[in-house]
Amino acid sequence: MGAGRTSPERPLRADARRNRDHLLAVAREAFEEAGPEASLVEIARRAGHAGHRGR
């Protein structure tokens, strides 16, 4: 299964769903402001995930 996808048998936990929804809202806002020049680093910072490297 691809990254970021969940199986139909195992829905996201509530905290994971909230985090995803928040990150998508922040990203949407950044892309509305900056268009395709929106920075993923800036999106992560705005979402409160700056400094996280995913490991």
Automatic annotation (TrEMBL):
SUPFAM superfamilies: Homeodomain-like. InterPro entries: Homeodomain-like_sf. It comes from the Bacteria. This is TetR family transcriptional regulator. It comes from Frankia canadensis.
